[in-house]
Amino acid sequence: MSAKKSAFNPVGRLVAPLLHQHGAEVQPYGTVSDLPIALDEATRRASVEALNQVLADTMVLRDLYKKHHWQTSGATFQQLHLLFDKHHDAQVELVDLIAERIQSLGGVSLAMAHDVAETTRLTRPPRGRELVPTQLSRLLEAHEAILSYVRGAAAEAAERGDDGTNDLLVSDVIRTNEQQVWFLAEHLVEAPLVRDEA
Ligand SMILES: [Fe+2]
Question: Ligand 1 center to residue 134 CA distance, Å?
Fold first, then answer.
């Protein structure tokens, strides 16, 4: 079969891209589609709502790490520059796990920055640079806010029988956040670098 050529597209219709298509959305945010995973709609809806909160907060924490990765300063610049990027990358992995869990439950995951900004409970940082102690404190407070919410959400998911969501929240989100808190908090210990006067 040969492609018909037109005056507007000399290549032919078969390879001509269909541009500027703007259909209606196929699943509104906040709804859950019916997937056969042996969890009722109320259970999946509750888990999706909790997971979208965790997703929004995790995306903000992810971006907070990149902000501090770029904007940190001082004698510990090199190590914090690298540490913040390492933690950022781990949060990126969490974001994908959480978003895909939401879709696996039949839900719709948050994605765009303005929707995330409207949803997150984390404190908005200033646009400008901050010193290392403030950067670290801001990150630690964000981690604790996430952990506080996720501990409750994990327990509620288990009570509903949603073991997959409970496992994700405990094994991935809680463990990753707890370890990152450890690495940050040790940088706020006022330990002498040269003379041990303890
Ligand atoms: Fe970088």
Answer: 20
CA distance 28 to 105: 15
The alpha carbon of 156 and the centre of ligand 1 are apart by a number of angstroms equal to 38
pLDDT, tens only, 114-125 = 999 999 999 999
Distance CA(133)–CA(135), nearest Å, equals 5
User: How far, in Å, is the centroid of ligand 1 from the Cα of 72?
Assistant: 12
Q: How many angstroms separate the CA atoms of 117 and 135, rounded?
A: 20
Question: 51 CA distance to ligand 1 centroid (A)?
Answer: 28
Closest residue by Cα to residue 123 from 111, 110, 141, 150:
141
Report how far apart, in Å, the C-alpha atoms of 122 and of each of 15, 140, 182 are: 47, 11, 20
Q: How far is CA 170 from the centre of its chain?
A: 15
How far from each other are the two terminal CA atoms of the chain, in whole angstroms? 86
Chain segment 87-96, per-residue pLDDT in tens = 999 999 999 9
Q: Are 131 and 73 spatial neighbours (Cβ–Cβ below 8 Å)? A: yes
Q: Which run of H or of E encompasses 68?
A: helix 41-71
